[in-house]
Write a structure and sequence with these properties.
Elements lengths: L1 H19 L4 H20 L4 H27 L4 H8 L1 H10 L1
């Protein structure tokens, strides 16, 4: 039931992006890909919400790590702590291993 509701909600968001903000190609592509993944998990593979939630948790953790590492790379010349974060390679290795 959760996946059906989410798929329906994304179908509502998608025309909104296409009609009102057609230049946000990343958001439109993200919504199309999300509909594909949710529909595939629900109707073809017959899995429920739990496998998708596990994937979402992993992606959010790796996204936070990757964003921290990338932003610190931009600021490493200005801030000493950014340089230390940039040199902390296990953070980047965690992102690579989870992706």
């Amino acid at each position: 039931m959760v996946l059906e509701f989410t798929i329906a909600a994304i179908f509502i968001y998608l025309p909104h992006f296409i009609l009102f903000v057609p230049t946000t190609y990343i958001s439109i592509t993200h919504h199309v890909a999300t509909i594909y993944v949710f529909s595939t998990c629900r109707y073809i593979i017959n899995h429920g919400v739990f496998p998708i939630l596990v994937i979402l948790v992993l992606t959010e953790v790796t996204s936070a790590c990757h964003n921290t590492w990338r932003i610190s790379g931009f600021r490493r010349a200005d801030l000493q702590i950014a340089a230390r974060v940039q040199e902390f390679s296990p953070l980047y290795l965690w992102v690579l291993l989870c992706c």
